[in-house]
Amino acid sequence: MSSSGSSLKQHLSEKTDLFGLQLWVVISITVMILLIFILTVLVICINAQSRRRRRAPNRLPVTQIPAVSKEIREVRVEQVPANDFVASDGILLTIHDKARENDSDKVMVHLGLGKSRPADSNSLSGSFHHTEKEGGSLSGEDGNSGIVSVYRPASSSYRITAPSPLTGLPEFSHLGWGHWFTLRDLEIATNRFSRENILGEGGYGVVYHGRLINGSPVAVKRLLNNLGQAEKEFRVEVDAIGLVRHKNLVRLLGYCVEGTHRMLVYEYVNNGNLEQWLHGAMRQKGTLTWEARMKILLGTAKALAYLHEAIEPKVVHRDIKSSNILIDNDLNAKVSDFGLAKLLGAGKSHITTRVMGTFGYVAPEYANTGLLNEKSDIYSFGVVLLEAITGRDPVDYGRPVHEVNLVDWLKMMVTNRRSEEVVDPSIEIKPSTRALKRALLTALRCVDPDSEKRPKMGQVVLMLESEDPIPREDRRNRRNRGGSIEIDSQRENSDTDKSDNP
Ligand SMILES: Nc1ncnc2c1ncn2[C@@H]1O[C@H](COP(=O)(O)OP(=O)(O)OP(=O)(O)O)[C@@H](O)[C@H]1O
């Protein structure tokens, strides 16, 4: 044993060819080099991975809603057979008729405006950038700042806009915009999701009123189920949507991902929604005046203009309707549920069905073909505007057959020069003729059966804000066209004079 030990020692002490170094020295150096090499490789790998993780949100679009939604095609095949959907409506099916389009021309003429050509619409509304200069009605967090906030995924820009003056709250999400709540946090906030805290139930889940430990009131939306969406994917999507900011969009404060639970925590908007004010429980509190309605609709238009035109890539809401327009104490509109379609769109059945939008508000081309872009939101906005003007439901089977569909009835009334009769009878102080025509024209242009002819939301904002009776350019065009339109123009002027100068 000792002889073999001493022979090993002897062997290790032998000089090698490498600079005459002893064998044990060469072995030690080799082992050290190997160790250093392994350590270096490890450090490089860890660095690369963390850099990749940090870069991940930069490559992420706010949402990835494609111009043409795949999910909607799936719905049409599996969930809502096109014919059933359209046949049950009956209106959507026929709205593309040439005769209908001619109707729409007539409607425009009787509003005293004629059908607008592209040049008209430019002169009427200007471009989005024009709006910026004129006072920034499409701006982000601060609606009056005149600055359009463009989503820039560079981390520095969104960290600056990150919120949260809230204190004593759970962990900030990894992108820095909001909070990652635990299930326990939200159980405490909502009194264990008690029935008394339920604000309502929609297609996506149940909404609870809650109070955070710092006293802030919140609305907690408990999503129906996870639909197999991976935790990381959900968090990344929520983070992206959480970065979208506008004073007319309900603010997403944070979320909860725990086990199969998925919850979204929003600012609490305390004055009901437009649907409740027009047709439901909030009517007990009084009737919304014309001005209040226009303020709410203008805020909604600004929120949509922001989603469609001020952020990149744009967001299509997909479910604009009066119950998704929340209202605060100052009668500011707060559009809710934006981004939810994307967040849950990868799921199946009922969620995908929700993505189809809501009966009565869905644009005909969306219902017929499943093709979706922001023009579908604009159609739905037009329906909400008509709903606010008339106080009627978009589809009301309790009415005579020719009045069931709001858009059709409205066109018929305007064609028959009965525009003054469409105003919600519960509005005490009627709008001026000028204001009414302005609102009706805007709504009718939004619900044009031809989606290409609908104005952009930025133009809609300008149309609703405008004080002019009719844009000068538009009048000149109408004079050139002469005939009955000229007569309408004179009527409109005298109406305007009458109502605005009592
Ligand atoms: N942030 C919020 N603050 C106050 N109330 C809210 C908030 N978000 C939603 N609600 C209320 O909770 C109820 C349910 O809302 P939810 O959006 O889930 O359903 P919905 O609008 O009726 O239907 P849908 O899911 O089709 O949009 C509604 O009465 C809504 O006004």
UniProtKB/TrEMBL annotation:
It catalyses: L-seryl-[protein] + ATP = O-phospho-L-seryl-[protein] + ADP + H(+); L-threonyl-[protein] + ATP = O-phospho-L-threonyl-[protein] + ADP + H(+). Pfam families: Pkinase. It is found in: Membrane. The chain crosses the membrane at residues 20-46. Its main location: membrane. GO terms for molecular function: ATP binding; protein serine/threonine kinase activity. SMART domains: S_TKc. This is non-specific serine/threonine protein kinase. The gene is LOC120253725.
